[in-house]
Amino acid sequence: MKLEICCFSDFKIYPSRGRTFISADSKTHRFLSSKTESLYHQRKNGRILSWTPHYRRINNKGVVQGAAKKRTRRNVKYNRGVVGASWEAINARRNEKPEVRAEAIAKAKAKAQSKTRTATKA
């Protein structure tokens, strides 16, 4: 749905509404109503008439001064521990070298294997 704009008052013109005037220099002028068309032909200025959106936009009518821009809240990130580990423990594991981590994994595997061996013997 294409909306036209009234060339006199700047109101939106919805489809199947309004009037069209084609001037001698073959420019098309679209008007919202016979009132706006009549005022245009009387050479009145839409910027001076207080009921037009053009006037209201120029003279800052109906615009709330305080609500210029809404401030957005920024999320603050915290480093917290999880249920099983404190933040210091998590950070220590994160910062340890890969060799140390590989050794710890190997020890854990060996311990788990020895546990399963003793369980199968008994």
Structure keywords:
alpha+beta; two-stranded antiparallel ribbon; 122 residues; single chain
**H and E order:** EEEEHHHH
Q: What percent of residues adopt helix (DSSP H or I)?
A: 25-40%
Through-space gap between termini: 82 Å
Low-confidence stretches: none
- Overall residue-averaged pLDDT value: 88
The amount of beta strand, in percent, is: 5-15%
Radius of gyration: 38 Å
- Tally the helices: 4
Question: Can you put this structure into words, describing what you see?
Answer:
It is a single chain. By secondary structure, the protein is an alpha+beta fold. The strands form two sheets. A two-stranded antiparallel ribbon has the order 1-2. About 40% of the residues lie in helices and about 10% in strands.
Brief summary of the model shown:
The chain has 122 residues and is α+β, with helices and mostly antiparallel strands.
